[in-house]
Amino acid sequence: MPDEVKNEPIWYAAHVILYIEFLDGVQDSYTVWENIYLIHADTVAEAFAKADSLGEEEATMDPDSWLTSKGRPARWRFAGVRRLAECIDFENGPEDGKEVAFLEYTFKDKATLDALIQKQDAVVTIESAY
Fold this sequence. Notes:
- The chain is α+β, with helices and mostly antiparallel strands.
- Helices cover about 20% and strands about 35% of the residues.
- The longest helix has 16 residues, at about 45-60.
């Protein structure tokens, strides 16, 4: 999508990745959150900047509060914006039951697709992300 100013702002769904980092010792697993934010912006660049700002803000810890994970002191780390999707048919705002965005995947075979459907581990390639 070209980064040009549209006639009016567009709604985007921004997938922001945050993870928990322990402040002490060895870390052998990572808890990851993929927060999805609605962003209203004139350009893709503006939408990414807003999403980055939200991720940075989300990861900023209030010095008077303490996060623990698995009983250990920890902090949120902003990993980046995984994807930005233009919302579909969203000119009049959100509406119950309206599709707002979609993801397109490619699977190497039917067995991999079946694994995803059965909520098992599956390797996917996202085709329509920008």
